[in-house]
Design goal:
7-stranded mixed β-sheet, 0% helix
Amino acid sequence: QVQLVESGGGLVQAGGSLRLSCVASGFIFSINAMAWYRQAPGKQRELVATISSGGSTNYADSVKGRFTISRDNAKNTVYLQMNSLKPEDTAVYYCNARVRSGGFAFGDYWGQGTQVTVSS
């Protein structure tokens, strides 16, 4: 019933910027927290940034000061602004959202991922 679709990935040189978007669609009553994860080849998926329904944010130490997570509740969209990109930021980035759809409980949903490649 709920789908998350990421976009905005691409290839960028070190020091460059990208902005990722993730749009939730389907039967959505409300969205609680949203987050960005990433997974590099041969690595575990790691949490990059989270944002609560009230706008409180948290970041992994590796991206703090460079990345900014934000959301537009009216559009059911979460963004990740990535500045000063480093080669080690190269990964597939996944959107996650806790969504109330059918029923009263929240469930976790994932996007398909978008590739970010940072060249040195």
